[in-house]
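If your schedule permits, I should be very grateful for your opinion on a structural question. I have a record of one protein: its chain in single-letter code and its fold written as discrete structure tokens. Would you kindly read the sequence against the tokens and tell me how you understand this chain to fold? Thank you for your consideration; the sequence and its tokens are set out here.


***
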Amino acid sequence: NYGYFLRNGSTAFQADQTELILRMALTEFKKNEDWFGYYTTLCNLGKCECKLGRLKEADKNLEEAYDRLKTYGFHHLHIVLTNLGISKLLSGNGQEAEMYLNKSFLFSSNAMPKIYNQINLALVKLYQKRNTEAYDMLLSLKPEVDKFSFDRVKQKYYLNLSAAAYASNQESDSILGFLMISEQHPDRNSEKFTMERISLIRKNLTEKI
């Protein structure tokens, strides 16, 4: 099915190009009356719109995708719920973000989505200035994260652990250690952002000392 080819291939592009490809996929799915394909793609579009900063559109599309995908069972719900949680967080609604992410955790069936979910929940706590809670939550994940051979988990984990450690006033040596590991695992989609965040935390840490 050409719609699935477009949807699955869209992840290889930048967000603005991804959006165009996903909209083409939506047209294909609608033409073929493949509504499961349509609403899973709408979920991906909502995530893309979050990256582009179009949060109202993202919320609308993600809420519609969640409402419709519920009729197909639980298998894909953790994905749309996670995207909804992130969208709500970016919109400044920490309470709703936490609600959706907690729901997502219930529908996550294996270790990797659960760890991503807990990282996102910790970010909500950081947004709410619950810095020590965020740090403790992230630190508790470290043994599981270190077991993963997938670099993507460490890319997401160690930078956020460093930020939470700094925000909760942990010891400088611990923070610097987390930053060193984060440097070894820069975000594959935005290595520049990773290095800028690391430099900023190091600079602020030096100024505090």
The first helix runs from residue 2 to 9.
